[in-house]
Amino acid sequence: MLTVVHEENQAQQHVPAGVGGSLLDELVRDGARQMLAAALQAEVAAYIEAHADQLDTDGRRLVVRNGSHGARQVATAAGVVPVQQPRVNDKRIDEATGQRIRFSSAILPAWARKSPQVADVLPLLYLHGLSSGDFAPALEQFLGSAAGLSAATITRLTAQWQDEATTFGKRSLAGVDYVYVWVDGIHVKVRLDQDKICLLVMIGVRADGHKELIALADGYRESAESWADLLRDCKRRGMRAPVLAAGDGALGFWKAVRDVFPDTKEQRCWFHKTGNVLAALPKSAHPNAKKALAEIHQAQDKDHAITAAKAFAAEYGAKWPKAAAKITDDLDVLLAFYDYPAEHWIHLRTTNPIESTFATVRLRQRVTKGPGSRAAGIAMAFKLIEAAQHRWRTVNAPHLVALVRAGVPFTNGKQVERPDQSNTQPNAA
Q1: What's the rounded Cα separation, in Å, for the pair 313 and 327?
Q2: CB-side exposure of 210: number of CA atoms within 13 Å?
Q3: Is the pLDDT of residue 18 over 70?
Q4: Which residues form a coiled coil (predicted)?
């Protein structure tokens, strides 16, 4: 962002006296409009191309362009500009929910009236698979035709972000206490001729209830060795053992955390588990199975959840024993969240903070022209999370996080009073 401001100041020095302010402002606004328009068109084109092979029974594409939305005024760093967003007609059905899939722009979400900063847009475009040669001309218009973001500037910014990601990965963790952590392995193909990058992502909740990125590393694979290397590195830099970790059961993380932080409790992600169970069932059974699974993890307490799990096993175990076993075999770690404050259950049941951050990136895995590097891809992912982090909310009832760290017991979401916490009043004199 500092580079942008510097070049804007240089541009203004070349504008004739007397017209500098208004002329440059107009160039900047028009450039911002063109930048957003080009970025939105490129985003939609990438989305449609990624699903070009999905056809209906008549051989027609299920994902196509469908005109444009009505124009709206969007506030940008260059002022208010008109934007007409392209429309996508996506006729696919989400098997997990049974609902129509809807395209959502990561650059300018529906109903947004304020654009992200340029520093946020660049890593998004990069991660979406656009080479610097593709989007540099559009970004060049941001400051007017006289002075823009050249390919060389993009390269310098990429190098700067790699340095920032490296510095972040070496920082001390001794002064921060992460009570809860979410972990996942995210596979993204970012302009590479190599295999997809496997990003090992750890996001934590501090003792004050705030969420933040703990670590982001290239695991090459989601193996226990890769996770163990990352956890040992975090421990060397001063990280305490989290109280609870939430993640997908397929991760090598669980073996690693037992070795590095053996006191950390385990919570399996219900989002991943639901997908695993449905994959073992015929599609005709999905609607009722999803309702039955929701009755387990949405139960009012652990006893009711266990009862619902037994009912699920009885209903589906005879015909589809593998599906039932995915619940019964992991029931303890699926229901671990019941031993923590009820206000935190919604946060602990899934790895949503990671899933939501990378949802749009996962849709764009088509390799485009131009070589890339793993370091650049990781740096762009780091910048994406860094940008998203500013919008993360604290967990519900943040004051309870410190109690969890202190070892205060909770049963079915309620704090268990110890003998020394009795409210008994002394007898009056």
Answers
A1: 8
A2: 9
A3: no
A4: none
* Contacts for 201-204: CB closer than 8 Å, 24+ residues apart: 201/354, 201/358, 201/385, 202/230, 202/234, 203/353, 203/354, 203/385, 204/178, 204/179, 204/180, 204/242
Residues 415 and 409: beta-carbon distance below 8 Å: yes
Report the 10 Å Cβ neighbour count for 253: 28
Angle 241-353-282 (CA atoms, 0-180°, nearest 5)?
110
* Paired tokens of 216: 């982001």
Q: Judge whether 371 and 158 are in contact, CB under 8 Å.
A: no
CA distances from 173 to 162, 176, 385 (A): 20, 6, 18
Lowest mean pLDDT among 119-128, 148-157, 345-354, 365-374: 365-374
CA distance 35 to 161: 21
- HSE, CB side, 13 Å, CA atoms: give it for residue 387: 22
Contacts of 359 (CB under 8 A, 6+ apart): none
> Among candidates 106, 382, 161, which has minimal Cα distance to 153?
161
Return all residues near 128 (Cβ < 8 A) that are at least 6 apart. 42, 43, 46, 106, 360, 361, 364
Q: Which two tokens stand for residue 323?
A: 């599906």
Please write the tens of the pLDDT for every residue from 408-425.
Answer: 999 999 999 866 655 544
How far, in Å, CA of 238 to CA of 175, rounded? 8
**Structural contact between residues 118 and 77, judged by C-beta atoms closer than 8 angstroms:** yes
Structural domain spans, the chain:
2-149
Question: Is 343 exposed, middle or buried (CB count within 10 Å of its CB: 0-12, 13-18, 19+)?
Answer: middle
Burial-class residue 163 by CB neighbours within 10 Å (0-12, 13-18, 19+): exposed
With 0-12 / 13-18 / 19 or more C-beta atoms within 10 angstroms meaning exposed / middle / buried, residue 76 is buried
Q: CA 245, CA 102: separation in Å to the nearest integer?
A: 31
194, 186 in Cβ contact below 8 A? Answer: no
Q: How many residues does the chain have?
A: 429
Backbone φ and ψ of 33, nearest 5°: -60, -45
Transcribe 355-416 into DSSP letters.
HHHHHHHHT-----SS---HHHHHHHHHHHHHHHHTTPPPPSSTHHHHHHHTT--EETTEEP
Q: Which of 185-199, 208-222, 322-336 has the lowest mean pLDDT?
A: 185-199
